[in-house]
Amino acid sequence: MKAILCSKWNTRYNNYDVRQQMLKNISSGEHNRDTTFIERALGKRVSDVQVAQKVHRMELPREVLIGSNILPLVGPALKKLGFASTAVTFTGSITRKVAAEPVADSMRENGIGTTFELVGGSSTEDLTLAQDAIREIRPEVALAVGGGRVIDITKLASFNENIPFISIPTTASHDGIASPWASIKGLEKPFSIRAQAPLAIIADIAKINEAPYRFTESGCGDIISKYTAVRDWRLVHKLRDEYYGDYAANLALMSAKLIMKNTDIIRRNNEEGVQIVLEALISCGVAMSIAGSSRPCSGSEHLFSHALDIAASRPALHGEQCGVGTIMMAYLYGADWKMIRDSLKALGAPTNAKELQTEPEFIIQALTQAHLIRRERFTILGENGLSRDAAEKLARATGVIE
After folding, report:
1. Is CATH 3.40.50.1970 correct for 2-211?
2. pTM listed for this prediction
3. Which long-range contacts (CB under 8 A, 24 or more apart) does 280-283 make?
């Protein structure tokens, strides 16, 4: 057993409860506790307004482990993080046997008991069940062992119940494995909402490589979409003076370039390719944590994907739709959209409606409705969006529809 990569992302505030309270207070406008905390650190009095305006909060994972056959390291990693008694493990019906049970064995060998809770979907009902389980079990920490919906449900449920969570992905399908954002169906907003970043990420390349390649290809589409997301971020900074961070933007762009540079290795569907994708996904998650928003990783192409989720009777995978959206948004920017298309083709990812297994009409509908998904998120689509004629011309010009 060999860990290929082991790195730490240190946080400014090591005490988990303090960091969580700061997040909730700042997001709700209740800054008194944060003011007291910062006054102690600075040795002087500051106002609540100063705290709200001057604190740029970065919530980063403390441990990142990437390697082959490293699930036995979960127990020791938890002990190192200070957990010693109970955990709850959220997983799926398939991933329980292949990944969650080995994780539980590792915890038990290190004196940490756990209870399995199956996640059936990513709806508000699933979220409620997960929160109820946490309240009943009262664990120190929640583990998410599975794909995107398991991780998103665990992420938000643990945040709402004020306990940390560990991300143990079994697919490399999107950057939610490392980000503080969760996508839950049935909420008022059809897009990701702020929750918390994982305290640790433990990614077993061997297990992830056993999953169908389509999940990895979807992850690549999600990463490549940073190509236009960052352009949208720069645009809103110039037009509306919204905060823009070069470091977070460049980290996201570097991840996209890494995928496009290594399409041949990734397409071989081996552990070397999976490692490249995982490192890029985690970097994207860290970019969002550094930025304090999803801006460096989510722009007009993501709005298109969310709109397509609503329009299409059978949506494709999130990253697949974002990839196709990136082709069209790059065209609007006058960027090299053919490079995006060719990179996706080299990865075996969809580049048009037919390959997404959706109707051309749904593509047009999604393009005309995308700007309505998040009114406060300004992108290349503008405030009024695309007309039907403009949407159809865009889709045809890029070969997304015939």
Report:
1. yes
2. 0.85
3. 280/223, 280/255, 280/256, 281/172, 281/174, 281/175, 281/177, 281/178, 281/219, 281/222, 281/223, 281/255, 282/64, 282/66, 282/175, 282/177, 282/178, 282/201, 282/203, 283/251, 283/252, 283/254, 283/255
